[in-house]
Amino acid sequence: MSSDVNDYEPGVLRIFQSKGETKAYYNKIAKVYDLLAERSEQPMREKGLQKLAPRPGEHILEVGFGTGHSLVELARAVGPTGKIFGVDISEEMVTLTSELLQREGLSDRVELICGDAETLPYDDNSLDGVFTSFTFELFDTPEIPQVLAEWKRVLKPRGRLVVVALSKEGKQGITMKAYEWTHKHFPNLMDCRPVFVRRAIEAAGFEIRQVDLEHMWVVVEIVLAVKP
Ligand SMILES: C[S@@+](CC[C@H](N)C(=O)[O-])C[C@H]1O[C@@H](n2cnc3c(N)ncnc32)[C@H](O)[C@@H]1O
Questions:
Q1: How many beta carbons lie within 10 A of that of residue 140, not counting itself?
Q2: Beta strand 155-166 with 219-226: parallel, antiparallel or unpaired?
Q3: Backbone angles phi, psi at 197, to 5 degrees
Q4: Which of 63, 88, 191, 221 to mutate to test the pocket of ligand 1 (most atoms within 8 A of CB)?
Q5: Which of 32, 143, 156, 180 would you call most buried, defined as having the most Cβ atoms within 10 angstroms of its Cβ?
Q6: Measured between alpha carbons, how far is 133 from 162 in angstroms, rounded to an integer?
Q7: What is the largest CA-CA distance in the chain?
Q8: Alpha helix stretches (DSSP H) within the chain
Q9: Domains of the chain and CATH, by start
Q10: What are the beta bridge partners of residue 225?
């Protein structure tokens, strides 16, 4: 992959790593992921979870759950009558998260699989919500509509989608430019890049309910949408 301009969203960089490389990268950094990212990402994830507003008894999927912090919150929110599903491409993340859920006594209400966000093993119209944080921006540009179509397939009508991701909306400062430069030249160090989150979700046929632009050290878009 070499083009940095595409017909889906002008100016959005492509992803330069294969899925195998992504998997290997997250397997390698799983044990130190929280040290690297938790401080900046945790408050953004919290805002996303608030928008999703999970309720007792619901069935909710998290895609790219990483070290599993949101799964713990989701499992507590849906309670013993609910069910949480998690999909992550990294075996190491699945192992770490299984251990966390066991320690928290929540293993019985969470089903984890090691797999790809683009091909989910769930029935059509079966889930109340899909949540994802800091994972959407790892999908290559042509893959984004396919992933969104798959999430739409598994959501029930009126099912909610919340995406928290690095965004190309709003004022793109020097930090974002440096970030994109690093992604382009050292994709193994900076595996993701900012994308137009709301625009992609809208183009996939979801109804947009709320959009927030937050500032970490780069712009983060938090979008709540529903399946019509
Ligand atoms: C940057 S981490 C974010 C982790 C977590 N959501 C958080 O906010 O802390 C991205 C996660 O997505 C997973 N991932 C990357 N590509 C994926 C794919 N195609 N399908 C499923 N998971 C994927 C990675 O293994 C990793 O755990």
A1: 18
A2: antiparallel
A3: -75, -55
A4: 88
A5: 180
A6: 8
A7: 48
A8: 19-29, 33-52, 69-78, 91-103, 143-154, 174-185, 197-203
A9: 19-226 (3.40.50.150)
A10: 161, 208
Percent of the chain with pLDDT strictly greater than 90: 76
CA-CA distance, 151 to 154, in Å (whole number)? 5
The band of 36, judged by pLDDT with boundaries at 50, 70 and 90, is confident
Indicate the pairing of strand 219-226 with strand 207-215.
antiparallel
- Give CA separation, 225 vs 59, 147, 155, 176, in Å: 17, 15, 11, 26
For the stretch 169-182, pLDDT in tens is: 987 778 878 878 88
Task: Return the DSSP state at 15.
Answer: P
Q: pTM for the whole thing?
A: 0.94
What b/e sequence results for 10-35 when a residue is b if at least 16 CB atoms lie within 10 Å of its CB, and e otherwise?
A: eebbbbbbebeebbbbbbebbeebee
**CA 172 to ligand 1 centroid distance, Å:** 24
Task: Compute, in angstroms, the gap from residue 132 CA to the centroid of ligand 1.
Answer: 8
Q: Is the pLDDT of residue 145 over 50?
A: yes
Residues with Cβ within 8 Å of residue 76, at least 6 apart in sequence = 106
Give, for ligand 1, the residue of 23, 26, 191 to mutate: max count of ligand atoms closer than 8 Å to Cβ: 26
Q: Can you say whether the dihedral through the CA atoms of 105, 109, 115, 117 is positive or negative?
A: negative
Nearest residue by C-alpha to atom 9 in ligand 1: 66
Query: What span, in angstroms and rounded, lies between the C-alpha atoms of 11 and 198?
Result: 16
Cβ of residue 179 lying under 6 Å from some atom of ligand 1? no
Cα first-last separation, the chain: 34
